[in-house]
Amino acid sequence: MRHQQEDEPARASEGLRFLLREQENLRRSKKPDSGGQHKDTDMLLRALVEAEIDGMAVANQLTALKETIDNLSTEKRLSKLHSASLGRQQELLLEKIGMFENTNRSLRDLLREWSEYEVRERREWLVWSAENEALRKKLADRETQNIRLFAKLTNKEKEASKLAEHLDFEKDNVKTTEELSRVLKSTRSHLESQLERAEAQKTQLTAQIQEMQQSHEQKQEELCALQAELQTLRQQREEKEQKQEQEELVVVAQRAQRAEESARQLMQKLQEKEAQLSRALSTSSDWCLRHSKEAAAKGQLEQETSALQMKMTELSAQLHLVEEKSRTEREELRDQLLQLSAENASIKLDNQRLRSELTSSEEKFRGFHAEARHLKSSILKYENLVEKYKKKVHQARLDSEECYLKLEMTQKETREVKESLEKEKEQVRQELLVRLRELELLPEKLRRTEQQLREAQQEAEVYERRNTEHSAALSEVRLKVEQQGAQMETSQQRNLLLQEENGILREKMTKLERKLDNVTAENKEMSQALVSKDGLTCSLQQQLEEKTRECSILSRQLKQTLDDAQRQVDDSLQKLLTKERASQSKALELQSQLSRANTDLSQLQRSKEEMERRFKTQLQNLKERLEQSDSTNRSLQNYVHFLKTSYGNVFGDSFIGS
Predict the structure, then answer these.
(1) Taking the model in full, what pTM does it have?
(2) 479: CB partners within 8 A, 6+ apart
(3) What's the angle, vertex CA 612, arms to CA 607 and CA 614, rounded to 5?
């Protein structure tokens, strides 16, 4: 029994050394960050081992006390040696109990610290989880930033495509403007040819009008001559009639005087003169008949002259109307000719101005076309660079996704490991709590044993007096000690089981620590890879930012050049499109200006067609008026010919000859 009692503390010391060695190995294998945690676990394990050693010492002391009591029961006498050994064992037992209480207190303190440390660990775990979540958020933010950069790149590509489309649109606009200039040149040449034709027709019409005016003046001169001839004829007729009447009166007066003188002188010759009177009466009757005939002819001539005067007034009124119409038509034609000449001059000036503006705009468009080609080549270069950076960003994204997946896998593994560690920690904690509860019951048992020992001492003191009572008390003490020995054996077995479980747990802890070391190494490698990838992403982001800045600068330059080009094009188009409203710097407004130019061209074509129609209508009107004037001239000529024939018929061939 004593050898067993001596072997048990040796075994406990060997187990303690083994535990300390394992703890040192664990300390060496673990990180410096987890030093406080391992120190706390070492302290707790040491306190547990010390508590076990103290418990074993108390158990050994109790076994020794049991042996001494058995010896006392066998010898049934209390010698000085036995009393000294009992006192010694009692003192040792009290010392061991005090040591056990101290270790128990230290163990309680350590458990409290352990609980506080677990609380701290949980807090640190929460902080670490928060930091992990923050890192995940940062990774998500980086991914969102990458997505945004990719979106920006796509937007830049879209803007570049839009700029290319805009350049193509401007090229189309330049082509359309060139086509419009060609159409304008063709229309201008056509209008110039038409204007030349109109001018030739105008000269022909002016010549015809001058010829008509000359013919009209000749006709007027002929009418004036006819009127003068009619007036001379009238005067001649009146003079002839007056002369005839005067001659007849003179003849009659002479005849009357002669008759009176003959009557006075030749009253005698009345018979001769009666014959002469009869002859004279016959001649006078003839003369009366002739006079009546001449009066009738004179009345007819007066009627004819009045009718001719009426016709002459009508003809003069018609001539006056025709002259007024011709004057109004001449004035209208002059106004139209002046308008046409002014329009031709303005059109020529506009054409010259448009030619100069077209030449300047063509030169500007050529310069802009060259700039657009240069910008397009630069845009293609930057597109290639952007595609390269896109590929790099895509590779970086793939690498970051792989790293992120690896991180997720490692995080999952760490979570699983931590969950398993927490579960094992909870199991160990529960087992330790159970052991602590069992150990908390030990001081009560020790106190009971102390009371029993005191009672045993009292009984030993009273042993000499009452052997029977002492034997009964010893039997009771034997039973109690046997029970306590059985309890101690069960506690030893439990301690052995707990040691085995501790060994298993230590092996698990070593495995878990190895896993943790591997995981931490992988985490370090992943963190280093992430740091390198972060550096690459940062460099790529910086390069992307530089390229975006360059692209923004180039886009600004492009915008400025395009704005300048648009402004110049707008100015040229404004000058070309009859100074319309100032157009904005956008391509849509350029389209609207082109549509306006098309509408203006259509309006010019319509105005041209209207001018042609007007010229045609004016020509038709002039032709109709010329035909009317020709018809009136023909009718006047016919009427004059009729008058000539009628006067010839009336006055004879002498009038025609005159």
Answers:
(1) 0.25
(2) none
(3) 90
